[in-house]
Automatic annotation (TrEMBL):
Residues 2-375 form the Protein kinase domain. InterPro entries: ABC1_dom, ADCK_kinase, Kinase-like_dom_sf, Prot_kinase_dom. It holds the Pfam family ABC1. GO terms for molecular function: ATP binding; protein kinase activity. It comes from Symbiodinium natans. This is Protein kinase domain-containing protein.
Length: 375
């Protein structure tokens, strides 16, 4: 049996309570039942928040359509597609079984590392019972913890896990603001205390298509080789594959590549001077600024921005905000490099294994000298 105690937090969709389940402390998330609790005023809809959300989205669709009519260049931002994705994320949060599924998937992806999510004990459409994680939110940690070494450790875990979610898991927590990251201290292997992060409120998660991840990897390889055209071409190919780009101008991949290099590296003035007026503007630019500039380039070349790329950058902007609050700049290359290199090594190992198997088969057939296998 589960019992409720004090309230831990509340949002527009649900409240989270501290409680017990068979004597064990748990967190119990309960969806708000009616529109009055949601602080919405339409009494006719009070029995079903889904109806009100549907009306909200109808209004937003009309607003997006009107905006695209008044400002035609907005069509390149794919507002209707972005709104469709947003609707999917919002409606999925109303059914707490969806969040339970996300938590279970994150738990499998994270394993027993330095990042985790609460364990799920039970779930239904309206109720989610989870492990009660004792820790302080990243917001509180930022206010209370002044040790730069400890703050850097938290920064490192958060940035590395964000890269892993994108490049390895293809599944990203889409709402990682400081309130949804809990910091706990645990004893490490050498006896010293080390931070561990718990990601909560996983109702919004982004499934990354394989095409997007592959093109992002190509873009990062272009960044590693300092090749603006290779980096930009990967982004162009992504949009062409989605039927969003017909432009064949060589200036498009170059402009996108320069933008990408400036985003992941500290470049010299020959590059950042193509985008920013001053070095201070360049060094102060963050993800939303780069996204705005990318959208402007896309508009110039009449390319519609990929909705899933838009969602990814929006999610990453939240992570970046947390990283900057910790006092360190976002280092995309540092975070992604281990996963890019490990994948290259995996490819080499698989190729080498296939080669040895082929040679073994040929040897058994008497076609290859025995010395070949000594390599």
């Amino acid at each position: 049996m589960a019992s409720l105690q004090g309230i831990l937090g509340a949002g527009c969709i649900a409240r989270v309570y501290e409680g017990t389940l068979n004597g064990q402390p748990v967190a119990i998330k309960i969806r708000r039942e009616n529109v009055e609790e949601l602080k919405l005023c339409q009494e006719a809809l009070a029995s079903n928040p889904l109806e009100f959300l549907q009306l909200d989205f109808q209004f937003l669709r009309c607003a997006a359509s009107l905006a695209e009519t008044l400002w035609p260049n907005l069509k390149w931002l794919m507002l209707q597609s972005a709104l469709k994705d947003f609707k999917h994320y919002m409606l999925s949060q109303v059914d707490l079984r969806h969040e339970a599924s996300n938590l279970n998937r994150f738990a499998e992806n994270f394993g027993h590392g330095i990042a985790q999510v609460p364990r799920v004990f039970a779930s239904s459409e309206r109720i989610l019972i989870m492990e009660l994680v004792q820790g302080q939110s990243l917001s509180s940690f930022l206010q209370n913890e002044k040790d730069p070494e400890l703050r850097h450790k938290v920064w490192s875990i958060l940035s590395d896990q964000a890269a892993k979610m994108v490049l390895v898991d293809n599944f990203l927590h889409a709402d990682l603001h400081p309130g949804n990251v809990l910091v706990t201290m645990e004893k490490g292997r050498l006896g010293s205390m080390a931070p561990k992060l718990t990601f909560i409120d996983a109702g919004m998660a982004l499934e990354l298509p394989e095409l997007l991840v592959d093109q992002l990897k190509l873009a990062m390889h272009g960044a590693l080789s300092n090749d603006a055209d290779l980096l930009g071409q990967a982004l162009v190919d992504l949009h062409r594959a989605e039927g969003l780009c017909t432009d064949t101008s060589p200036s498009l991949p170059h402009r996108l590549g320069v933008l990408g290099l400036c985003c992941v590296f500290t470049c010299d003035e020959a590059l950042w001077g193509q985008l920013f007026q001053t070095r201070a503007d360049y060094m102060g630019a963050r993800t939303p600024e780069y996204f705005n500039r990318m959208a402007a380039i896309m508009t110039d070349h009449e390319v519609r921005v990929s909705p899933v790329l838009w969602s990814l950058l929006t999610s990453f902007a939240l992570v970046e905000g947390s990283l900057h609050e910790l006092g360190f700049k976002t280092n995309v290359l540092r975070s992604c490099l281990p996963y890019l290199m490990s994948q290259r090594l995996d490819i080499f190992r698989r190729a080498w294994g296939s080669f040895r198997c082929s040679v073994s088969e040929m040897l058994n057939a008497g076609q290859v000298p025995q010395q070949v296998l000594a390599v």
